[in-house]
TrEMBL record:
<protein>
    <submittedName>
        <fullName>TetR family transcriptional regulator</fullName>
    </submittedName>
</protein>
<dbReference type="InterPro" id="IPR001647">
    <property type="entry name" value="HTH_TetR"/>
</dbReference>
<dbReference type="InterPro" id="IPR009057">
    <property type="entry name" value="Homeodomain-like_sf"/>
</dbReference>
<feature type="domain" description="HTH tetR-type">
    <location>
        <begin position="10"/>
        <end position="70"/>
    </location>
</feature>
<dbReference type="InterPro" id="IPR050109">
    <property type="entry name" value="HTH-type_TetR-like_transc_reg"/>
</dbReference>
<keyword id="KW-0238">DNA-binding</keyword>
<feature type="DNA-binding region" description="H-T-H motif">
    <location>
        <begin position="33"/>
        <end position="52"/>
    </location>
</feature>
<dbReference type="Pfam" id="PF00440">
    <property type="entry name" value="TetR_N"/>
</dbReference>
<dbReference type="InterPro" id="IPR036271">
    <property type="entry name" value="Tet_transcr_reg_TetR-rel_C_sf"/>
</dbReference>
Length: 199
């Protein structure tokens, strides 16, 4: 995929990716065709294919952009410093804020996985890479809370987050967010209880 000669993505590529990201998230991946993206991005078919060999390359780029954004948000939370418990709460609060956001349609990565069931497909591999990173990042945070192995706490957090992301589209976002945050408090409490940790 080509960008500008300065090393920055070209304006046309950025416009195509921004347009696709907005529509993909709101309406799904398979239901949105290349022609619509080209039209709404006010570009040409030739320009599209100069930057993206095919639609699935655009889908992967969409997920890569979402991944970069979430990693940057996580990094800003860590850079703010403070006790590990507060960092866990800050990450959870950021997730809850997403669920409450107008236009929320769930997790972009879970949505993509539902549309691309083959685990070897490039889209699913990108989903797996993101989820591996996220699990590792939250497990590391929990390892700084209390003592003992943090793997179970990290997995539990991710499962709580996944459930909240799905429920946030189906039920009252405020109730879902509060329930999710309560669950995270339970995880933090469990890290303070001797003998409660599992690998």
């Amino acid at each position: 995929m080509k960008g500008s000669t300065s090393g920055r993505p070209s304006e046309a590529r950025s416009r195509l990716l921004g347009t696709a990201s907005r529509i993909f998230y709101a309406e799904g991946l398979h239901s949105v065709g290349v022609d619509r993206i080209i039209t709404e991005a006010d570009t040409t078919r030739a320009t599209f294919y100069r930057h993206f060999p095919g639609k699935e390359d655009l889908v992967v780029s969409y997920l890569e952009a979402a991944d970069r954004g979430l990693r940057a948000r996580f990094a800003r939370t860590e850079e703010a410093g403070g006790p590990a418990e507060e960092l866990v709460r800050a990450v959870a609060s950021d997730i809850a804020a997403d669920i409450r956001r107008e236009g929320f349609r769930g997790c972009a990565f879970l949505n993509a996985a539902a549309e691309y069931p083959d685990p070897e497909h490039p889209v699913r591999r990108r989903v797996a890479e993101h989820r591996d990173w996220f699990l590792g990042a939250v497990t590391d945070l929990f390892s700084r809370v209390g003592e003992g192995p943090a793997g179970n706490a990290g997995r539990h957090f991710v499962m709580l987050r996944d459930g909240a992301m799905a429920a946030g589209c189906l039920a009252d976002p405020e109730t879902v967010s509060t329930t999710f945050l309560d669950g995270v408090e339970g995880l933090l409490w469990s890290r303070s209880v001797p003998g409660s940790h599992r690998p």
